[in-house]
Task: inverse folding
């Protein structure tokens, strides 16, 4: 991360620069506002440490100028003329923070580490967005399904609103894709998009992931950790599988949504929630409320804007377009040159019920691109679903490889079937399912992700 120190005191610039370099920062120096402007125009600067008064120059003017020309550049005021009035004015003008001399380098380093994480997320978002735009356009904008056209209209209406969005749909229907579509087409597009799967981690870890923790808050908390609410800043926080969150965590989340602030675990300082919240589930929350497994107050807090995604079996006209997109992606990923799918096989793909929806189709097409010979896909490896009836397997849907591979394939299918049936028997409870299967929760989560269950 590149930091520009703007101060007319040579000793301070050199001394502070030396400390920051030891912590992995790239340092640029300027003794005047004029020189600072030159550096900012020619170098990629992420943070400016700006002295408020430098001889006849006024750092406050540069601050206001940077806020207009470089809205995502963090500016930290460092000055020996600290008072409440000047601090308030600088923060109003858009300063990230305000330090008085002599500088507490420990506090400054904490701030810079937080900014480093925010900037990295911004870079990740920018890189992700390029490939994401095509996927979301195919899934949302170019869909012929009436329900998807309605979703497109909702996205246009709510994208710039801070209103909470609740997405419903079966596993693999693209709930996170829609959430990202809303974010990346909105005024928040250059801010972080952070997601967390509420079903994949236990309560203690989930609380720490969401709210962060202070050093010494619990055994193993050797340093302060910033949570997702804090790291999301003024961007978007996506809570996936909200229906699997425990009642205890639901209560804590409800309080945050009501009061718009929180404390880190082990902390006492209230921190403001500035991000927009989106949540998703594949469960019937009203049924969970009836069974007292989901808090009704939280449901109404989340359910400001509702989006319900149709399953892939109701979007058969979109399937050829999805296949084309996934073939193009897999060709780039695996350096292949697959051009098409056998017409008879495509008819079967369109007719199949796809219980894993878009995610399952994507995995199957990727696998086919990797294993197919020539330019045409003529067979599929169907993984991730329990298909025991012969009618589910047309002749073209063949197993690839030798006898050993075939045995391994059927063993995998048997494992998938057993996991799915046990999950259904235990009503989705991961702990009880893992116990009955005789494996650890960690192993079960790994297999759920591997098989897209």
Result:
């Amino acid at each position: 991360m590149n930091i520009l120190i703007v101060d007319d005191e040579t000793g301070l610039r050199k001394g502070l620069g030396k400390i920051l370099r030891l912590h992995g920062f790239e340092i640029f120096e300027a003794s005047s506002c004029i020189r600072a402007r030159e550096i900012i125009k020619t170098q990629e600067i992420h943070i400016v440490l700006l002295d408020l008064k430098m001889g006849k120059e006024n750092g406050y003017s540069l601050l206001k100028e940077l806020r207009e020309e470089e809205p995502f550049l963090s500016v930290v005021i460092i000055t020996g003329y600290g008072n409440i009035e000047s601090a308030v004015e600088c923060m109003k003008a858009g300063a990230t923070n305000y330090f008085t001399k002599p500088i507490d380098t420990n506090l400054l380093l904490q701030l810079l580490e937080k900014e480093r994480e925010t900037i990295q997320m911004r870079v990740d978002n920018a890189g992700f967005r390029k490939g994401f735009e095509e996927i979301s356009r195919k899934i949302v904008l170019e869909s012929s399904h009436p329900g998807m056209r309605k979703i497109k209209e909702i996205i246009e209406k709510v994208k710039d609103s801070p209103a909470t969005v609740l997405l419903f749909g079966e596993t693999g229907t693209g709930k996170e894709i829609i959430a990202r579509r809303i974010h990346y087409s909105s005024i928040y597009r250059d801010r972080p998009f952070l997601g967390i799967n509420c079903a994949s981690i236990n309560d203690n870890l989930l609380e720490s992931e969401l709210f962060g923790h202070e050093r010494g808050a619990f055994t193993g908390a050797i340093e302060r950790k910033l949570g997702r609410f804090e790291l999301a800043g003024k961007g978007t926080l996506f809570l996936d599988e909200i229906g699997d969150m425990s009642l205890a965590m639901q209560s804590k989340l409800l309080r945050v949504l009501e009061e718009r602030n929180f404390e880190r675990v082990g902390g006492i300082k209230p921190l403001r929630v500035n991000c927009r919240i989106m949540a998703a589930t594949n469960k019937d929350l009203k049924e969970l409320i009836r069974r007292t497994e989901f808090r009704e107050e939280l449901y109404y807090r989340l359910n400001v804007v509702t989006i319900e995604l149709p399953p892939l079996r109701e979007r058969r006209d979109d399937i050829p377009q999805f296949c084309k997109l996934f073939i193009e992606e897999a060709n780039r990923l695996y350096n292949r040159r697959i051009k098409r799918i056998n017409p008879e096989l495509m008819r079967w793909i369109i007719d199949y019920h796809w219980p894993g929806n878009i995610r399952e189709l994507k995995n199957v097409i990727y696998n086919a691109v990797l294993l197919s010979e020539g330019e045409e896909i003529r067979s599929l490896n169907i993984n991730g679903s329990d298909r025991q009836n012969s009618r589910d397997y047309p002749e073209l849907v063949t197993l690839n490889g030798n006898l050993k591979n075939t045995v391994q394939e059927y063993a995998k299918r048997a494992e998938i079937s057993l996991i799915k049936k046990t999950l259904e028997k235990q009503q989705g409870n991961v702990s009880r399912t893992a116990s009955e299967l005789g494996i650890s929760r960690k192993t079960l989560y790994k297999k759920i992700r591997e098989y897209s269950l």
Summary: Confidence is low (pLDDT under 50) at residues 384-407. The chain has 18 helices and 18 strands. The first helix runs from residue 10 to 22. Residues 122 and 192 are 6 Å apart (CA to CA).
